[in-house]
Amino acid sequence: MNKLLRLVAAPFLAAAVMVAALSTPASADTVDSDPQIAAEWQTAWDTYHFSDTTPPAPGSGRSRVTTSISVTIDASIRHVFDAYSNINNHIGRAAFLKRVVTHKDYYYCGLRYIDFTAIEDVPFEGTVVSLKTHAQQRINRDRFFYETDTWSEPNVVTHQKITFVKAAGGKTTVTERLTFDADASLIDFVVANGVASHQQTQTAVKQAIESGQL
């Protein structure tokens, strides 16, 4: 699976690396501080409004694709929801995810809002490239669903709604509805890589829950 992800992601990563190189001097010894990452999150939020679900305008050069993936986990809905909705439980299970920097965690109108940045260390052409995905998660624990909007270079936006439904035998079915917005030239790679990555995470979290690790 990791080999497939690297092959599928290569053109997308190349574009991301080029954009990052143009905007930030490269340094293997430089690690952004949490306040620096928080400032980047705020700039991305203000500039790209990645919680906006308006479809790309005709002629904008951008495309949108929506798809769904599901998994059934042998555990109660409350347990699955609490474990699965905790992004920190995806570290080491989501492809390349190494760290999560939480900028703000608060409640508004009955929902829990978490503003965070996911840090991924991605192998690329003999080196490791650190990529940031800025995100806002909104958790509705009473109705067993959460939503996450993300933005990452090169101007890729995702809208995710993850729902949890009781299944027979005390199991829980988790369905992720994934919407990807990107430049038309990148959309196929973004969708293929994004879906593969989410499927890997689903499988790993399922195994961790059913084995008692989570």
Automatic annotation (TrEMBL):
Cleavable signal peptide:
1-28
- InterPro entries assigned to the protein according to its UniProt record, in alphabetical order: START-like_dom_sf
Q: Which SUPFAM superfamilies match?
A: Bet v1-like
Give the UniProt keywords, A-Z: Signal
- This protein's source sits in the domain of life called Bacteria
Provide the protein name: Uncharacterized protein
Q: What is the lineage of its organism?
A: Bacteria, Bacillati, Actinomycetota, Actinomycetes, Streptosporangiales
